[in-house]
Amino acid sequence: MTLKAVLFDFNGVIINDEPLHERLIEQLLIEENLRPKSGEFRKYCLGRSDRACLTELFSLRGRFLADAALDTLVARKAVAYLRELEAIDPLPIYPGVPDILFHLRAAQLPMAIVSGALRSEIETVLQRSQLHENFSVIVSGDMQLSSKPEPDGYLKAIELLNEKNTGLNLKPYECLAIEDTFAGIEAAKRAGIAVVGVANSYPFHMLQRRANWTVDYLIDLEIDRIQKILTQKGQVLKAS
């Protein structure tokens, strides 16, 4: 096995915006005459799409959301998110992100975003941060795929990377996912992908129990060492 592609989560890995998302979700609840509860965002929303998050939060309050109503809520939040971003300069991109992306590009490893965020949100952040050219594939929350912890987003990213890179023939075990949440780690593992947990949203020791590798900061990620470990595992499997 060799490492052939790296798949990134977005919120909590590329950009430090989870507190903003929590505030906007709480504001939506208030506007709908519902009371936010402490800890709910972390329990039901962290790492999941807005659709999955809002469906869960409304259901807990005895409110069923029809598709049209859910679409409206997601769109309202997206407008508010982009409006908030306009007032933030520079954007809170995590330290080390540009460096690790540069290193991966130099190693000619294709990269993708796999996120529950809307494509408009992802592209706005990447464009403003001059990071867009690093990602040939973006799998977003408006692609009608099941939210993490389901593996659908990761499997779709592999499919799209293969379409864009003739001869790549990418398999899940040849990928590395970078995640910060339990739901994201589970999604990648269920897709058959090894995972690096970055301790941006949860403490190191909590991610360490779930991810294949764990780092405090993305800048600590040693791609060459992971590549070596994967290669050694592949050699062992071939020998057996």
Automatic annotation (TrEMBL):
Organism: Oscillatoriales cyanobacterium SpSt-418
Source species, domain of life: Bacteria
Protein family: Belongs to the HAD-like hydrolase superfamily. CbbY/CbbZ/Gph/YieH family.
NCBIfam families: HAD-SF-IA-v3
Cofactor(s), by name: Mg(2+)
Keywords: Magnesium, Metal-binding
GO molecular function: catalytic activity; metal ion binding
Protein name: HAD family phosphatase
One Pfam family linked to the record: Hydrolase
Methyltransferase found in the keyword field: no
